[in-house]
Amino acid sequence: MPLLRDFPFLSGKPLSFLGLALGTSALGFWDPAFASTATSENKPFLPSGSFISPPTQSSSSQEPLTYLADHESYDKTGLLIWTGNVRVWQGDQAMRADEITYDRASGVMQARGHVAMVQADGSTTYADHVELAHGMKDGIGTAIYMRMQQNAKLASTGMRRTNGTVTDFSNAVYTACEICVKHPDSFPFWQFQAYGAAQDREHQNIEFNHAWLKILGVPVFYFPYFAVTDPTVKRHSGFLMLNINPHDRYLGTYFTLPYYWVIDDQQDITFRPLISSKTGPQLSAQYRRRFNFGKLRITAGIADDTRRNSPYYNAFNQLSNGGKEHGAQGYVFANGEFNLDRHWRTGFNFNYASAANYMRDYRLPGYGSDALSSNAYLEGFGIGSHVMLDLEGYQGLNRGIIKNSDLPFALPRFSYDFQGEPDALGGRLTVHSTDFYVYRKTGVNDQRGELALQWDRPFQNSWGQQWLFTARLDSMLYHATRLNQQPIYSSARSHTSGQVQPTVSLKMNWPFLRTFNKGRGSQLFEPIVQVIAAPNTGGAADRDLPNEDSFAYEFSDTTLFALNRYMGTDRLDGGLRGNVGIHQNWTWNGHSVDMLVGESFQEHITRNRPAYSGLDHHVSDPIGRITVTPTQYLDVTARGRYNPWRKKFDYGEALFSVGVPQLRFTGGYVYEPVTPYYYNYTNYRAYGVNTPYSTEISELSGSVSARWRDYHLSAYARRSISRKQFVATGGDIGYSNDCFGIDVIYIRQYTYIGGQRRNSTVLLNFSFKTLGNFGING
User: Fold this and answer.
1) Is 501 part of any domain?
2) Distance CA 387, CA 382 (A)
3) What is the CA radius of gyration of the chain?
């Protein structure tokens, strides 16, 4: 009969069971049937849940010791002997052994045979023999084996623990790789084999002396000294992995050796010095802090950029004079978010760099973008509502095309959205408002106040028709100055005006459904008809209205039944128009075909829409979309808009994916006769549609990926058919298993960024589980 005892007289000698490692494996001896209360305060001594769950508090030296054993005995010297499946607990610590002896006079405890120990932090240690003394702060053991987080393991022939903080191991072996169950004597993929090792719990690391890194048992690299962070620690101050790059176009040969400093449980800093052969040094740092109510991150750097870059001509044959691009440089990227209460939060994003070429020379994130954006905001959430007040500004990076003086500042912008519950008539009201003051040093300055109300009432009849009635009212009030400058180029200089547009819409979906293939398949045939009526406001630009959000206009399958096909509300679709479409779907045995074709009819033609909009006549260009998934090995999606007057597609794109999980091919194609981004790059009123805007997009892309066992391979390419050149190519070949990974990555950019074309880049990356990642870039 097992014995369960409580020894309060042992409470002065805590069982600090080695504290060697953090693990999650169970000891395999916990039996809930033997749980009982055995503390002086009559509180449950043992946790009621799973024993392997990491405890939240360490054991106290004043807590009693409780044991469970098949047999117990005492000798004349006062030696306690427990034998037969012995289990011992003190607080949140536990030990199991075949036999445990305890000398009350000397305070020495010895455990023999299948010893397993679990600490308060969940650490699991196995041994043949362990002897603990001096309040369990000192100890020795033989045949030590530890299991740690992330499957890390350490084994040694013997260990010695000193003062409860430092544990020395002899003939240590460390790995994070799985051990083959069928062949336990075979070598793991990698391991560190050291003459000696030491676990320092005070400094939170494990140090190896005279260590060899072995791959499949073969020594490949010798380390006189090597240290890793103790796996029992989530965050630990110290140097991170050294990064050496033998060749970089702008930096030459450079290296970085980051240092990570844990300030406390809420904040840390990572310092990253960079030394290069082609330019001056840089010191950057990242500060992070987490609050109970939010988080803060600041990344900043200073450098002496000694590269002198001569002016260049951009893609539009304009000479760049972007200012000082060398000497003392710096950057600050910061963001934070803070909860004020359950309904309100505030935050900011601040991004600034002293020069675009400085970002390029030192590989700062964000280089290659046209601008850096910054904002600060106050945001609120309610039941069915959302409100935001923010400030936003930009710093231009694409010299010669986008100038800082041309970029807008929102000082401020206010937006509000509300969606109500269904009312007595069965409809639902939504409210929207976006109000702003936009400032430009060069260009239009304008203020807008907006209120948009929309009421939707769905219903259906006995024929199965699904109806949606919509009534909407858009109203805007503007005050603008310098309207004759970008991006409006109006004839007026200053103007106060507005627009009010009511719109009503009635849409009908009439789905017909049938089954086939003996009920295993279904077909949906759904005609869709919509009528929209609104005042024929014509071209808002002709009324000298500012435009901050409606440069893009899209007529495709996604906007066929939209009330307004502009991306904003400064420009509105008006007039009497009708939209029709046919939606069909076939689904059977996990396969499907889905398609939509449609067309729009309009009484009035708005001539000032962007070119190739598809709405240049009373009858629009037909549009369509089809998605085909005949098997799990193939799926294709294509959409487009066909111009019957030009007898050409004005817009088209297609995507496909084919193959099995081990080998997969993907591809895509996109075509558009214009580049909408550059629509207002120059004064289109004076010079007509400019050259960048009228440049067509015709681009083909493709990729392939393959995987076999632990090996993987992928490659991709993008080619501009209209420019007859590649845009980008690249690939990756590598190997990865449960504890190691290696990748060789190739990247080639053919486009110009900041007046420079990027060279080919080759990256060699290694990943060792629990040790870290490091690589070489060239």
Assistant:
1) no
2) 9
3) 35
CA triple 592-596-598, angle to 5 deg? 170
How many structural domains does the chain have? Answer: 3
The residue to which tokens 């992330």 are assigned = 150
pLDDT for 626 equals 97
CA dihedral 62, 66, 67, 72 (to 10 degrees): 80
pLDDT of residue 194: 94
* Tens of pLDDT, residues 368-426: 777 899 999 999 999 999 999 999 999 887 665 667 778 899 999 999 999 999 999 99
* Alpha carbons 521 and 571: distance in angstroms, whole number: 45
610, 674 Cβ separation under 8 angstroms: yes
Rounded CA separation 575/598 (Å) = 19
Does 517 reside within a domain?
Answer: no
| pLDDT (0 to 100) of residue 295 | 96
Q: What is the domain extent for residue 768?
A: 699-777
Cis amide leading into 412 (omega within 30): yes
Instruction: Report the distance separating Cα 77 and Cα 74, nearest Å.
Output: 8
Q: What is this structure's pTM?
A: 0.76
Are the C-beta atoms of 18 and 139 separated by less than 8 Å? yes
Residue type, 120: A
Report the C-alpha gap between 219 and 231 in whole angstroms: 24
**Token reading at 453:** 């109300």
Nearest to 358 by CA among 412, 315, 397, 409: 397
* Token representation of residue 399: 């010299």
Contacts of 218 (CB under 8 A, 6+ apart): none
| Dihedral angle over CA of 764, 767, 771, 772, nearest 10 | 70
What's the angle, vertex CA 352, arms to CA 395 and CA 329, rounded to 5?
115
For residue 201, is it within any domain? Answer: no
Q: How far is CA 476 from CA 267, 414, 435, 627, in A?
A: 47, 14, 9, 40
Residues with pLDDT less than 50, the chain: 1-61
